[in-house]
Design goal:
Blueprint: H1 2-27, E1 37-45, E2 59-69, H2 73-126, H3 131-189, H4 195-214, E3 217-221, E4 227-231, E5 236-239, E6 242-243, E7 246-250, E8 256-260, E9 264-266, H5 271-305, E10 320-321, E11 330-331, H6 349-361, H7 363-403, H8 407-441
Antiparallel strand pairs: 1-2, 3-4, 4-5, 5-6, 7-8, 8-9, 10-11
Helix pairs in contact: 1-8, 2-3, 2-4, 2-5, 2-6, 2-7, 3-4, 3-5, 5-6, 5-7
């Protein structure tokens, strides 16, 4: 009789635990990072048994041996890797699109205004004394300088935006690393197989996923499940009580540099940090190319203009002031009479020679080539981002096929454990009624 009561009591306890776990699954079906759990049920030996062989065990009910998380570690790691690469390409695409807009908006002005300078010069060659044309020529030079400044300012703004985002990403990464260390402490103290341990393991995996979205990592686990996180190069980020501090800085040429304090270089191969590094390098290249174009234009126009004389018979002055940066290029303050159209060959001799600089310098073609190259890079990056996103979505789907909560499955489990719970409760009731009947005999 005592065995019957013990069997019923063990069933009520074990199936009650199972129902609680199913309830947690249903309640957290939409919770990010939650992994489906199940209770591991095992046969309990009869009370007082000394287990020397399997045959000596009499039925003793059921026991909840622990809570198990339903996951495939390989699929989890694969999803983490795919997420890091998708984050890299998405971040890179975002800033390359910003660069494309900066060059599209300013680039059209660059190309159009440079073309307008030479078009007006051609008109001046036919009417060198036309004051309106002279003024239009100077206005086109000023508009071109303004277009270079606007484009440079847009690229500089993008570079500053990348630096700000990089610092925010590094701050979040450091916060996640500290949180992993604290969760590790909780995991080591948690009772093995408990719901609390499962919750901590879910949080551990969520934080590791966040870190992997920032930079590529390698992860291992100790005997209790506490995470040891290292960079791909093997430098410790979280290892026992050691928690690294990641830093970000922008170099003089506009590229990003990452490190682990105090002086270890970090070179992200994937994740948001890698994407920001790629974008910063690209914008740095485009800024240098813009400065080169500005230098070429200044040299071409100034050399051609200074070869002639103006309406007052004075040598032609520089049309553009350039000190090495497109961001500070500006048009010289000249009067219409100071446009140097003449030379020894006649009143329009210099402006005729001016137009020859158009083909010899190739400045218009170089501007077009820069804008075209940017468009090609943006197109290629969009294709890479689409492929990486598709790869990530597939990896997530494979992972969630095992670890995600299926409400239909949970409904079936709920019904199954409810029936088992009721059966265990009925066992106790039968034992009580039987005992009462036996007592009533006396």
């Amino acid at each position: 009789m005592s065995d019957l009561l013990a069997i019923g009591a063990s069933g009520v306890k074990a199936y009650g635990k199972a129902l609680a776990v199913v309830g947690d699954n249903i309640a957290n079906a939409q919770t990010e990072g939650y992994i489906r759990r199940s209770v591991r049920l095992e046969e309990a030996p009869a009370a007082g048994e000394v287990v020397l062989s399997r045959n000596s065990i009499r039925p003793g009910g059921v026991t909840a041996a622990g809570v198990t998380r339903e996951l495939d570690q390989w699929l989890v790691d694969d999803a983490r890797t795919a997420s890091g690469e998708a984050a890299r390409q998405s971040t890179r695409l975002g800033w390359i699109s910003v660069t494309e807009r900066a060059l599209d908006n300013g680039g059209e002005s660059l190309s159009g205004n440079v073309t307008a300078i030479f078009t007006t010069a051609d008109q001046l060659s036919a009417s060198p004394n036309d004051i309106a044309l002279r003024q239009q020529f100077l206005s086109n030079v000023d508009a071109t300088a303004s277009a270079f400044r606007r484009t440079a300012e847009a690229l500089n703004s993008a570079a500053n935006g990348i630096a700000t985002e990089a610092q925010s990403a590094v701050d979040q990464l450091n916060t996640d690393l500290t949180a992993i260390s604290r969760v590790n402490d909780g995991i080591r103290r948690a009772r093995a197989g408990s719901s609390n341990e499962a919750t901590l393991l879910d949080e551990r995996d969520r934080l590791i996923g966040s870190v992997a979205t920032a930079t590529d990592i390698q992860v291992s686990y100790d005997a209790r499940g506490a995470a040891i996180v290292r960079t791909k190069a093997g430098d410790a980020l979280v290892d026992g009580s050691t928690v690294a501090t990641v830093t970000a800085s922008m170099t003089a040429n506009g590229t990003l540099s990452f490190g682990i304090a105090p002086a270890t270089l970090l070179q992200p191969g994937s994740g948001t940090l890698a994407g920001l590094g790629d974008a910063a390098a690209h914008i740095s290249t485009q800024r240098a190319a813009l400065d080169t174009l500005a230098s070429q234009l200044s040299t071409t126009l100034n050399t051609a203009h200074q070869s002639g004389v103006d309406a007052n018979g004075n040598p032609g002055a520089a049309l553009l002031n350039f000190n090495g940066s497109a961001a500070s290029m500006n048009a010289a303050a000249l009067l219409a009479t100071e446009v140097a159209t003449a030379n020894a060959a006649g009143s329009n001799g210099n402006i005729l020679a001016f137009n020859s600089a158009r083909s010899s310098s190739g400045i218009e073609q170089n501007i077009t080539a820069m804008i075209t190259q940017q468009a090609q890079i943006a197109t290629a990056t969009r294709a890479q981002e689409a492929a990486a996103s598709s790869r990530r979505d597939g990896a997530f789907a494979a992972r969630d096929a095992i670890g995600a909560v299926d409400l239909d499955q949970e409904a079936a489990e709920l019904m199954r454990f409810q029936q088992a719970y009721e059966a265990a409760a009925r066992t106790i009731q039968v034992a009580r009624e039987t005992m009462q009947t036996m007592l009533n005999i006396f």
